[in-house]
What we know:
Blueprint: H1 3-6, H2 13-18, E1 23-26, E2 29-32, H3 43-53, E3 59-65, E4 75-81, E5 86-91, E6 94-99, H4 110-119, E7 125-129, H5 135-143, E8 148-153, H6 156-168, E9 174-178, H7 181-187, E10 194-197, H8 207-211, E11 219-227, H9 231-244, E12 249-261, E13 264-273
Helix pairs in contact: 4-5
Amino acid sequence: MKLKEMLKDELTKREIRLLPSSFDVVGDILIFTDFPKELEKKEKIIGEKVIENRKNINVVLKKTEKYANEFRTPVLSHIAGEKRKETIHKENNVRLKLDVEKVYFSTRSSNERLRISKLVKEGESVLVMFSGCTPFVCVIAKNANPSKIVGVEINPVGHEYGLENVKLNKLENVKLINGDVREVVPSLNEKFDRILMPLPKSAENFLDTALSVAKKGTILHFYDFLQEKEFDLAKQKVLDACKRNNFECKILDVVKCGQYAPYTFRISVDFQIV
Ligand SMILES: C[S@@+](CC[C@H](N)C(=O)[O-])C[C@H]1O[C@@H](n2cnc3c(N)ncnc32)[C@H](O)[C@@H]1O
């Protein structure tokens, strides 16, 4: 049942029109991403109706601030249901345990995670920079057959959930490191077959770090937020970084993998060192 129908007896027509249409569901937690101020006094009724009507939801939260900090974590306030922010989310054959306020996680990237896992060839070594609570690591390890995956995450809470998720999904050949990729990656002293950079907005500041562990044949996935007419800018960032690091590269693909804002897309530039 739609939210509007659920609440037709509790809210006025004006309030019904104001109801938020955008929300995320992580495990059994529903998060309103843009809850209108005008409905604050009715938020408990709205949250309780959601729980009453959706069997899989036990907690309702609303986002009050977006990913502005280094860990990209949101500020979430409780509206209804159980008073917790930890849950287990299922996607692409894996289970991911996380606290939705202490760790960045977006269900909207699940197709992208599956896409990458399908590209990983048998025996590849994979580096996941900015690994968070390890959704990319787990989806790749579960759905492909790499020889090893290394994940690096600066948020200690994200790292701890990552360790737990590796156990939860009974994964092997995974190594997780808590720290800043700028310090950790150069100290790894090894080159990788595939490198993921899922930190749109600022991944370009880390291209030199990623290229320090690349070799001939390495495939990199560089994420950015751009409007369609700016996609060439992302390619240029990649070409400039390769030139700076004395590498030649081939752009394999520019993939739209989500919408960030009206007309602005999350994109991946897939490129290979040749
Ligand atoms: C956009 S989130 C992506 C997380 C995860 N890969 C996912 O898809 O859910 C970016 C992550 O990068 C981490 N991060 C930011 N700067 C970092 C750095 N310098 N070194 C390591 N991790 C960093 C943040 O804490 C955050 O968890």
